[in-house]
Structure formats: C-alpha cells, structure tokens
Amino acid sequence: MADWAFDETLVGAAHASGRLPAPLRLLIDTRAALDPATFDAARDGDVVAGALLEAAEPSPLSPDAMSDALARIDALEPEAAAPAAVARAAGGALQELLGLPEPARSAALAAIERGGWKFAGLGIKRLDLVAEGAMKAQLLRIEPGAGAPLHSHAGDDYTQVLRGAFNDGTAVFRRGDLCVADPETTHVTSAERGDVCIALAVTDAPLEFKGLLGLVQKAFGRPN
User: Fold this and answer.
1) At which of 14, 43, 76 does a domain end?
2) CATH number at residue 111
3) d(CA 156, CA 11)
C-alpha cells in the first residue's frame, strides 16, 4: 500500500477521482464521519480534482460509456443491511454495530449477513468488510486486555478506532484516533481495560509474528 501513504489531502484527491481502492475509501469515509478535519481534506481534494478535470482536454466517449458508468456506480453503492442480518444480531452485539459511524455501520451489518464474525485470536474477532486485490478492510472486536502479541508488518496497516481504546506500548489510541504501522513497525497491541475495543483495520499484507508464534506461522502459513 506504499502508493497510498496516508496523506489525507492526497487521499482526498484520489477519492474524488475515483482511484481510491474500496478498503481505503471505506476508511477515509468513516474517518471523515469521526473527524471533520478529514472531511475538509477530502473536500479540498474534490476541488483540486475538479480543477484538473476542467483543465483536461476533452476526449470522445465510447458507445458503451453510459452503461459502463452506471455499472461502476452500482458497484460503489454500499450494500444495504438485509433485515435478516438485524434479525440474527441480538442485544448488545447489535447495539455495538448500530453505534458505529457510517459507512462502517452499513458495511458491518452487510458483512454479518454474508457470514458474521470469525475467530482471530483469544478475545479477538474479525469481520471481513471489503477487499480489493491484496488490500482488505476488516472490523476487529477486541475484548479488554486481549490483543496481538509481538509482531511486525509485511505491508502498511491503518487502524481506525471506532469504540473503546487500545495501546501498542508507545501510545493509547482512542475513538477517532488512527494508528499507522508499516514494515518498520514492531509492537504489541492490546485493548485497554473497560470497554470492548472495535476498530476498522485496512491492510495489504498479514502480520508477521515473532518468537514461537512466528515459527508456527512460518510452518503453517500466514493467517488471513
């Protein structure tokens, strides 16, 4: 994901041009809901992209341009959460998802309909939201005190806290905070005591665990 270093103005311009991969588009839109400054950066990107578009030389449309455009718009529309997803989610679990900012909330409810939470470690569940190529967006639900043991990153990792908090040994990340990790980052992460931590994570490569767990990972392959 090196081509998408998280400079919010550049990401905003990429978003406006339609070049932003779906997982990062979900991240930036959710971040904008939590942080108005991000929305301003995305809006600035819209202005820059619009100016560049107006300055560009016009080119003739292909005969299938309209149908292709409509197909792409349909592909960008967020999936509506089916009533069955709401019916299957109950009590606190449903309230956790309903309390998330959009568009993460709709993406999470749609993912529940497709298959639901998966085991990702002791006290950790993951919900697969959207993927494009090697890049994927997942919702992580981490019980207080649980987390990932010592690990590094084979690629870039953006983790947006939506509820609760976690720490990585150097800082505490709370609702609205964004933790950025890259191949030079090695750390231990764990949810803070108190509330469950829910975070939106966008990655383009798996974690690389250290020690005994790292040996197991090498022997049996990296987790999804």
Assistant:
1) 76
2) 2.60.120.10
3) 15
Domains contained in the chain, number: 2
- In this prediction, residue 61 carries a pLDDT of 61
**Dihedral sign (CA 190, 179, 151, 188):** negative
Residue 193 CA to residue 188 CA, distance in Å, equals 15
Q: Nearest to residue 44, comparing CAs of 74, 70, 7?
A: 7
- Cα–Cα distance, 207 to 215 (Å, whole number): 13
Q: Does residue 94 sit in the same domain as residue 142?
A: yes
Split the chain (224 residues) into runs of 10 and give each run's mean pLDDT: 58 73 93 76 52 57 66 56 48 82 95 90 93 94 88 83 93 93 82 95 77 38 48
pLDDT of residue 170: 86
Quote the DSSP letter at residue 101: P
Predicted pLDDT at 148: 82
Crossing angle for the helix pair 22-34 and 104-114, to the nearest 10 degrees: 130
Structure tokens at 129: 């939201």
Do 71 and 150 share a domain, yes or no?
Answer: no
Give pTM, 2 decimals. 0.70
**Three-state SS string across 32-50, please?**
HHHCHHHHHHHHHHHHHHH
